[in-house]
Amino acid sequence: MSLSEIGEWSEVKLDIIKEYATAYSIILDKQKRPELKHVYIDAFAGAGYHVSKKEGYLIWGSPLQALLIDPPFSAYHLIDLDQGNTEVLELQVKSRTSGPYDPNSVYIYNADCNKILLDKIFPLVRYKDFKRGLCLLDPFGIHLDWEVIYQAGQMRSIEIFLNFSVYDMNRNILHRDSSKVDKKQIDRMNKYWGDESWKNVAYSTEGNLFGLEEKTTNDVLARTFRQRLKKVAGFSYVPEPIPMKNSKGAILYYLFFASHKPVAAKIVTAIFNKYRNR
Predict the structure, then answer these.
(1) 4-166+218-275 belongs to which CATH class?
(2) pLDDT digits (tens, 9 = 90+) for 61-103
(3) Ranges of each domain in the chain
(4) What's the alpha-carbon Rg for the chain, to the nearest Å?
(5) H or E element: which one contains 178?
(6) How far apart are CA 110 and CA 82, in angstroms?
């Protein structure tokens, strides 16, 4: 296991998630009639630490930052497919002798999030049981099944942050000549998007005098996916996502947020606007 290097855009993302998760926990903790239990879910938790690509210093990852939020979540579900990551994460959790959270409320899974979220974790956060969840879906790429996003939207009890990786899409799938794209990459995109309708968005012959296929822009993809989160997954509120750019100004991914609560969308919109030009 080696600690992942992250750029400044990822540091901004961590700040955004921490800021909202803190507000979320404060609001849910005050809810008494009825009393709600709120949980934190990190589907690609990593080892708990990263290394700054620019400066070389250690940065706490999203799961360790979540553990320090006060008031604490009632439970923390931390998932990673890499056994080395989960072993280091377990050591980090066990080594902490103080903090607002109960160590017995932390559950770490060396598993595929696409399966364990649907089979084991989401069923623990049912709306009718007065449970609520904040779920971070932040893979390095589009290694996520649409069914996870869809079920989160249908449950009404779960809010999500989602990494929409246009970098992965542009590099491996959205080539200028769609006929040359590897079938495995197309299948991966189908799983992430939920069907093949992305092809109608990604490529168009409209406006081309010669009827040639042209690739669409990142913004068009993001706008269409935003509507998909609303109309297909069923989230009531999906604020305009924030584009995360590298030092050259290229968009690597869009950070989406989706919820069923207007106050949640209002808070996230303010946070996104705060960081949008950083």
Answers:
(1) alpha beta
(2) 899 999 999 999 999 999 999 999 999 999 988 887 667 888 8
(3) 4-166+218-275
(4) 19
(5) none
(6) 7
